[in-house]
Every structure is written in structure tokens, then in C-alpha cells.
DNA sequence: ACCTGAACACCGTTCAAGT
DNA sequence: ACCTGAACACCGTTCAAGT
């Protein structure tokens, strides 16, 4: 095998697994950005199942243009939440391990509930090999696992708790944030009860 | 006002709030039952957003017949889960308050995750006045509140915990049961961590 | 009282024709 | 390289005609 190791071309990636990239031509970039802005607005207002027709209209482009840039709804969602994920992964937390863990978990919960319905999509990414969020989920799990391990090393959290269980807590609390009553913050309460359950004085 | 207090007639209830009832005519009852059976199968296989066309076909009736018996998807879902809810409400639990509370919570979690997507519908019922699950949610909350209060009276659970928070735990754990990885029971773990967090020795 | 299925509406997705 | 919008498919929902 003397073939050089080339990056995957656009054509080699099936549409379902293709990540959206910002075009080079000026009109393409304008439309791409307008679509993203419209998508964020629509997802925020109607959840992740917002009408794609509506998004295209709001962005002032034809529906085919939307599909040209974002082959699937997930590709659009992923692009619309990419910055928030980067922010979460770069988050600096408190040096005290238990406080730091709590802060990070609450930020992860906020990220996963960016839009109504988003957390289910993200959770898929943890198990589905082909999901666009596989890498992102992996990175989140890794960061969470680090903070968990640090808290365990410091004797602040029970040794038996696993990274997967921490990830489960983030998902469950995010679902609560999306679905609980409007006038009461159940997700933070849930996180605190669990941290009480797994922490040591 | 001398008008007698009559029960609401069919016509007085808007379709969205109408609860399905078993018809009196023999052919109607046959179709009603066949639809329910097909619905349970379809919901179990594809979640609560299963195709209604498919359900009607599987039941061997026209789509109009389905709508005749069940004016909305929620009406069909409610009828398909009515027995399970009754079972939950009639559940006898252990006399030891904390054990009893745990058993009931796990059964409530199982009920709310009967079908993929079901828990979000149920959670709506807790806040939406018009939901078909309003009564059911209220009954669940009442039963949960009873068991919670008993555990608190016995000094086994922190006084500050509220019935709404218990209901939130049930919903969050049910979401996990619907969405977590297939080979790992994250929802029971979550319940146990929370019970650890709120219980007293 | 209940059943049927055509008709309509809505929305996601593709693709041939264009610049 | 990118845009357009008609065309198709799928599915939920209604309703006039029937038994």
C-alpha cells in the first residue's frame, strides 16, 4: 500500500454524516450565516423540530439552498450549537474539586438543553457510532471524567461513581430543564441532590 | 339558576380534551379493541410518534375509524396506558417508609417510560390545564406525596424535599430509561443516588 | 351509531435547470 | 460553486356518503 493518506472528500462522506462547513464564495457565506441565525431563532422558539421551510424563508433563501449547506436537520443543529459546545469544553472551573465538578455539570446541563428536544439528540450521540455528536459527546465525557476523577482523588466523591453515570445525570437534568414547570428550577435541584448523594464531607 | 347539573355531553367537549370510551355496539367495540392492541404494539416498537396510518392498517380498519374512536393521538395514548396507570395507583408498597418510597418511585419511572417519548407527554400533563393526563398526574403526585410525607414523618427523608421535586425525579429517571444506553440501567442508579442524597440514616 | 376512503393540507427531501 | 423552486412522497386530519 503506497497510496497517500488523503482527507475524506465531500463525495466520500454520506450526507447523513456530513458536517456543515462555511462556504468560500461570498454569497454562499452570506446565506450560510443567515440560515444559521434563522435556525437558532426557530429552534429557540419551537424546539429542535422547528420547520425547515420556515427557517429557509426567514433566511430569505430557497429550501434547496438550506439542504445544499446542511444536508440533514442534525447538521444544521450541530452547526447551530458548535460554539456553545466549544465554550463548555474550554470552561475554567473552581480549583476546589467538588465545587468545580458542580459548576461544570450545571454548564453541561445548560448546553444540553440549549433548545427543547436537543438533549435527546445529544444522548443519541453517546451510543450511535454515526451521530454527528459522537466526537462532541466523547469530549464532554472526557472532560467530565477528568473532573470526577479529580474529586474522587481528593476524597470528595465516592469511588464507585462512573463517568457514564455523571453523563446520565447531565442528560436527565437537561431533560428536566426542558420539560419542568416554568417557574421552578428542578434541574439544579436534581443535580444538588445527586451531588449530596455521591459526595463525602 | 334552576337548570339541573348535567354531565358534559360529547358535543360539549372539544375533540382535543375528549377521553376515549369503549363503544356499545359490537362492531365498534371490536374495532376499538383492535385499535388499542395495534397502538400498543406500534408505540412499543416506534415510540409515541408511531404512524397512525400504520396503526389503523394493523387493526384492519380505515383511518377515519381510528379518528372516530380516538380524536387525537393523545386520546389513543391515554387509552393505551390507562390500565398501567391504574396499576401504579393501586400498587401496594413495603411498610418501611424509605423502602416503600423507593419501590413506588421505580414503578412510577417504569410507567412514565412505557413507550419512548411518553414521559414528555406525561410531564406536559403536570402543567397544562387541558392535558388528558392532568387527573392522572395529579393522582400520581398525590400518591407520591403521601409516601414522601410518611418517610419524612418517620425521619427517614429530609423535611425540605417537596412532592414536586419527587415528581421531577420520576420524570428525569424515566427520560433516562428511554434514552440511556441499552446495556446499562442508569435510571435506577439515578434514583438511588438521589434517595441517598435526601435520606437520613 | 359506526365505517369508509377520497380529498386536502402540511412538510420534508430531491433534482433538473439555471447563474 | 452555488441558487432556485417545482415535483414527489409521506402523513395527519376532515368529511360527505354509506350501512
Largest sheet of chain A: none
Catalogue the unreliable spans of chain A: 1-11
Tell me roughly what share of residues is in helical segments of chain A: 55-70%
Oligomer: homodimer
Classification by helices and strands of chain A: mainly alpha
- What is the first-to-last residue Cα distance of chain A? 59 Å
User: What is the overall number of helices of chain A?
Assistant: 9
- Say how many strands of chain A there are: 0
Shape of chain A: elongated
**Helix/strand order of chain A, N-terminal first:** HHHHHHHHH
Strand content of chain A: under 5%
Arithmetic mean of pLDDT of chain A: 92
User: Largest contact between protein chains?
Assistant: A-B, 30 and 31 residues
Rg of chain A is: 19 Å
Please summarize what this structure is.
The structure is a homodimer of 201-residue chains. By secondary structure, the first copy, chain A, is mainly α.
Characterization of this structure:
- 2 copies of one chain form a homodimer.
- Chain A is an all-alpha fold and about 200 residues long.
- Chain A has helices at about 25-45, 50-60, 65-70, 75-90, 95-110, 120-125, 135-155, 165-180, 185-200.
- Chain A is built from 9 helices and no strands.
- Chain A starts with about 25 loop residues before the first helix and ends with a helix.
- Chains A and B meet through helix 6, helix 8 and helix 9 of A and helix 6, helix 8 and helix 9 of B.
- Chain A binds a DNA duplex (19 and 19 nucleotides) through helix 1 and helix 3.
